[in-house]
Design a protein that fits this description.
338 residues, alpha/beta, Rossmann fold, six-stranded parallel sheet, three-stranded parallel sheet, 11 helices, 13% strand
């Protein structure tokens, strides 16, 4: 009679152990944070989430201060501009009355004048025809006092932005979007490069990120940021992957990147569990939520406890764009006088 009793004890003991293991597994899988989207095998590192093992190490990212790096670039531009025999000139063309564009143009005008660059703004009415705008660009192309020309986007519907870019003198195209400059960039030749991608590269360099051989993922393939940035990264000997809205298993692709650059145009798309621990994260996006809060394409609070270095929004890539516009204007002025 003892043998069945022993078997029953073992049977119930086995079931108890199974229940204990199942409860423990469920406890691990049940996240407290509503933002946690990871599996039990991949901690999300969200600060308010018990999904990760209690007491697990939390990584605090170093903030890459775009404003400080941009200020240093502006100071360098001011010093070099003062040493030139002629004052560099920048012409900004604004068509229409878009409020955001007007703010950007005023900021560029103030920044240029503060660094010793003679800035002028040509404000044209919203109903300006394409022919009239092209005529103004031809006039600026021929003006010896103008070293750099920038046409503020977006343009009214009746104007083709590609035609405007192609009409600009490539030597004065400080936005870097003329086909000749784009081709030179891809070929690795001297050119005026687009300001935002150039700003990202200077942020990485200023933040101490080593690109030689690094696995870099660029999330976004726009002609304004993603594509020119890929060419610059390849020139820096990085190993580059491009991801976009059609990429399969986008979070997993991001997790492999040692450097993650996000220019997707979607607020807080990249979550904490998308980021490889210790990676450098550059957030190019600027989005305003219905609440009025300004955020990037990266969920900053989540990613900052996983990444090794990260840019904030605002104060990251934004200040670099204007600083690189000024730098391009100075470069154009020097090259035109050589």
């Amino acid at each position: 009679m003892a043998a069945p009793t022993v078997r029953r004890v073992r049977f119930w003991a086995g079931r108890s152990a199974l229940r204990r293991r199942s409860s423990a597994f469920e406890a691990v899988r049940r996240p407290v944070s509503s933002n946690c989207r990871s599996l039990a095998s991949r901690p999300c590192f969200a600060p308010a989430c018990t999904h990760c093992e209690p007491g697990a190490a939390r990584m605090t990212a170093r903030i890459i201060n775009g404003k400080a790096i941009a200020d240093a670039i502006r100071a360098g531009v001011a010093a070099q501009a003062a040493a030139l025999a002629c004052q560099p000139g920048l012409a900004v063309v604004l068509v229409g009355d878009d409020p955001a564009s007007a703010v950007y143009v005023r900021a560029k005008d103030r920044a240029a004048n503060a660094t010793g660059i003679a800035a002028q703004t040509l404000h044209l009415p919203a109903d300006t025809s394409q022919d009239d705008l092209l005529a103004e660009i031809a006039r600026l192309n021929a003006d010896p006092a103008v070293d750099g020309i920038l046409v503020q986007l977006p343009l009214p519907q009746q104007i083709d932005p590609v035609a405007v870019q192609e009409a600009m003198d490539p030597a004065k195209d400080v936005d870097g979007f003329h086909p000749l400059n784009v081709g030179r960039l891809v070929a690795g030749r001297e050119c005026l490069a687009p300001c935002t991608p150039l700003g990202v590269m200077r942020l990485l360099r200023g933040g101490g990120t080593v690109l030689d051989g690094a696995r870099v993922l660029v999330l976004g393939r726009s002609v304004l940021v993603g594509r020119p940035l890929v060419a610059m990264l390849l020139a820096a000997d990085a190993t580059v992957t491009v991801a976009h809205s059609h990429t399969r298993d986008l979070p997993e692709a991001c997790r492999h990147a040692e450097v993650l650059i996000v220019a997707a145009g979607r607020p807080e798309l990249v979550r904490g569990n998308w980021v490889r621990p210790g990676a450098t994260v550059i957030d190019v996006g600027v989005n305003r939520l219905p609440s009025g809060k300004l955020v990037g394409d990266v969920a900053f609070d989540e990613c900052a406890v996983v990444a090794g270095a990260i840019t904030p929004v605002p104060g990251g890539v934004g200040p670099m764009t204007i600083a690189c516009l000024l730098s391009n204007t100075l470069t154009a002025a020097v090259r035109r006088r050589e």
